[in-house]
Predict the structure of Ribosomal RNA small subunit methyltransferase D.
Amino acid sequence: MPRSSYKQKSTPRPDAKQRSHQGAGELRIIGGLLRGRKLAIADVPGLRPTTDRVRETLFNWLQFELTDSRCLDLFAGSGALAFEALSRGAMQVTLVEKDAQAANLLAQHAAKLSEAVNGQALVQRGDALQFLQQQPDVSFNVIFVDPPFGMGLADDCLTLIAQNNWVSSGSWVYVETEKAIQPRVPATWLLHREKFAGQVAFRLYHVN
């Protein structure tokens, strides 16, 4: 679901894709310490938060994995996934967003929300693929991969995540793509959960 701000985000999206997102304006954190908190969304074409329903499903899958975790939200856009993880006990969440306006607003939210919980939210402005070219000091427990559609970005991200040690045994990787696409993942990544919403597929992999 297109939460990042790549140039192609201004092109029309399939209706089913649009229906899997809320309208622009604000998002609501649905669980954890920050439950009910509303956050403004940057006025960027095509940028919409993951719906409450999809987030509820995803975070039910991850309910025992977030406490004191380190999470990475690629193509962060509205920050819906990272801030939900922070609310539910993540120790640190890192949001990567290319669009300047969206990244600036995310940084404002990150500062306020970090003061309200025990965790920390960090915002990195830049291209997700370029960000993944480096190797992290330590791996992440949970990574959210939710790129714009039609650009082949998911597979490129997954390759770099595995290649550059962004995850380790026990990590979780959430991937959202068009329904017709089957992400290419390493043999050591096991499909833990899979669900469809219209023409959108969302999957959670466990790294062995």
Notes: Residues 100-116 form the longest helix (17 residues). DSSP finds six helices and nine strands in the chain. Helices lie at 15-19, 52-61, 80-87, 100-116, 128-132, 153-163. The CA atoms of residues 34 and 154 lie 29 Å apart.
